[in-house]
Amino acid sequence: MTDNIEKIYEDSEAFRDSLATVDKKGKRIWIYPKKPKGWYYSLRTYVSWVLLAVLFAMPFIKINGEPFMLFNVLEGKFNIFGVIFTPQDLHLFALAMVTLMVIIVLFTVVFGRLFCGWVCPQTIFMEMVFRKIEYFIEGDANQQRKLDKMPWTKDKIFKKTAKHAIFFAIAVIISNLFLAYVIGVEEVGKIIQEPVSMHLGGFISMLVFSGLFYGVFAFMREQVCTTICPYGRLQGVLLVPNSIVVHYDFVRGEPRGKIRKANPLSSIQSAVATGDLALAGSAATETPLKIQGDCIDCRLCVHVCPTGIDIRNGTQLECVNCTACMDACDEVMEKVNRPKGLIRYASYNSIKHGKHKLFDTRVKAYTAVLIALVSLQIFLFATRAQVDVFVVRVPGQLYQKVDDNTLRNIYSWQVVNKTGQNFEGITFKLKDEPSGRIELVGAQGNIVSTSQNMVKGVLMIDLPKDDMPATKKKIVIEVYSNDKLLDKVTTNFLGPIK
Ligand code: SF4
Ligand code: SF4
What we know:
This protein is an alpha+beta fold. It has 19 helices and 15 strands. Strands 8, 9, 10, 12 and 13 form a five-stranded antiparallel beta sheet that branches. It has a three-stranded antiparallel beta sheet with strand order 3-4-5. Strands 11-14-15 form a three-stranded antiparallel beta sheet, with no helix packed on it. Helix 5 runs antiparallel to helix 7, helix 7 (154-183) packs across helix 8 (185-193) and helix 14 runs antiparallel to helix 15 (277-285). Residues 246, 304-307, 309, 311, 319-325 line the site of one iron/sulfur cluster (SF4).
């Protein structure tokens, strides 16, 4: 019996040939998901409040006057958890991206699209902000359908205008928040408060992003998750039968069927009592009351789905693991006196075979790679310099003779300050070369290496000819800010062929 159910379940794959949100002519089918309610939805609501609070608070948090989070791609300044990164840390950034990819792959292999349902800003804003406002103004799914079909009455104009005005206002807030992560809250404050002409570029960006966010949440909606988001598209290759996802228990649920009132003893008895033996006979031959599977085919799980799919068809790319169908089905199961969890977090293997192996070979391999990458990242981060100094010989130059006894090499230098403080009085000293001399070209007065910036120039080094044991000599240059040693670099000094 169970094998037959699995075969029917696995053979019916026709649903994969089409998208729930696109009709046969390729036209968008607008989804009106029924308002979810239940234990998971409440928990997700609380989680989303916390995450939204964190998201909105972070750009305002400062550590030693520096933003806690800043991704200023325009100027190449990055503050992540209060640590300043510059373009010179590109290797750390690249490694972090690779590590993140492995984390995503590992997490998805084990927990499926859990991130999408609980943490992704798209789902949180869509389901916990915009959708709730829509339910509040336009009512539940049926009322929304009715409103969309009805002519443009005063009531409809009022509701639609109110909804879209609020949607746009929230989109503007999200756009400002997004910009605060890129250019910082102070700059966003200036764009808002000062005349538009002073920040035309910033103002246009704000408008463009506001329009973009409004379009996404008012119109694009689930299309972002099902057709645009690359993470969503990767599910097909990342998910394995052991992945824990929102799953319909087809073993317990099938064959599905409506509850039918059939053959109650009382109906036979009452037919006999009235002397209607024909009716009594037909009642007695009716199929007895029996729901073979627990699914009563009420389709509530489909009605609440924001991506319009039927999770009973199996794991699908469109499922964002929002848990709405779990709540809906649990409510139904409660009403028909069946155990909850017909739709639940489970793996295909746990449903089919009744057992689940969390740490299979693939998970172990990903975990090993992840540990190696994280260890390397920690090491590189721990040994990362706060100030990077580069001194390199000017290309195309060998050496110059200053006089019969002195040779000169010319170098370009850079001091990259990754800290939140300025370093004044930058000077360069030769180590272990008492007869040598450094001269900065064109530098006048106090050289300052400002916070998160780079200062650069050219310097000349003179060494006595007699101090050159060979054609090439390694020299060490120390860089000071006043009397504080910032860094030391090793470079080559060239002389004539010996
Ligand atoms: S909500 Fe539950 S009982 Fe109703 S159709 Fe979906 S799986 Fe079946
Ligand atoms: S199938 Fe269930 S968990 Fe998946 S998107 Fe639809 S309602 Fe959410």
